[in-house]
């Protein structure tokens, strides 16, 4: 079908077709399941920018808690969940009104956040006390906590909802949580500075960025073993799989690029230039767009996956937009939340204090 996009002229596949100004120091990004909105958390001014994916403009701004980092949208698209690292809460936003309707107290220094496939649970990593909070979305209360590794950062839920994979930045591992009992059933060693986490749509693979050694670890979920290691750009942070699982996109903060990984061979096939200190990344539900937050220049890069001619792009699937429930977070609080990053710019929960 024909999809409208911003911009004029001819754009090759995998190129930035628009750049959207947002709030201060944007970090996490998530897109609604029906594709009309993208939500960007801005840690620099404690807000969430609501973007229309049809016009690539900010249509609303929502004030949330102190130092927001991660963001996730529930499967119905009715609620957005935002971790606030410095006041130990999760803000619950109604997408109908773009207002905060509830605030959930969780552990110390929450960063990553993800929703289950049925929307009944939301999981948040707490980097300050090495736990994952389990939130009942019916009551917006924390109903359980799971002890994981050192400085848990990001997490993702498998499509069947049976497992949660949480990266632990300071011990270079991924904790595998069984959601039936909220217990850790396995721990997988990955690269140094384990950061972003993405699960493929079929649930067979988990991709984890390792910011300290510039790699992505590939975990086979059948037996929770390390299947492969991929070298990407400098300071890989956010990661997302496209809807058909054929590509994984990795935001590289120092390189200011997005590495495109072909999952069939786990090889990097392209590096797309984006903005300064690329951090969070999300994909539209039809796979036609990838959204990347650039923390140092307060923008979001919009990548067109198809080839565009003039203001039109040819693709299959639904209308432009959509995205991923995988949020993007930080490496922590206190000793983890530094003023500078390895990229030499201000960084959310950077590796140095």
TrEMBL record:
Keywords: Signal. Coiled coil: none annotated. Signal peptide: none annotated. The keyword Signal applies. InterPro entries: Haem_d1_sf, Host-pathogen_enzymatic-act, Lactonase_7-beta_prop, WD40/YVTN_repeat-like_dom_sf, YNCE-like_beta-prop, YVTN_b-propeller_repeat. Residues 117-188 form the YNCE-like beta-propeller domain. Pfam families: Lactonase, YNCE. It comes from the Bacteria. NCBIfam families: beta_rpt_yvtn (TIGR02276). This is YncE family protein. It comes from Rhodococcus xishaensis.
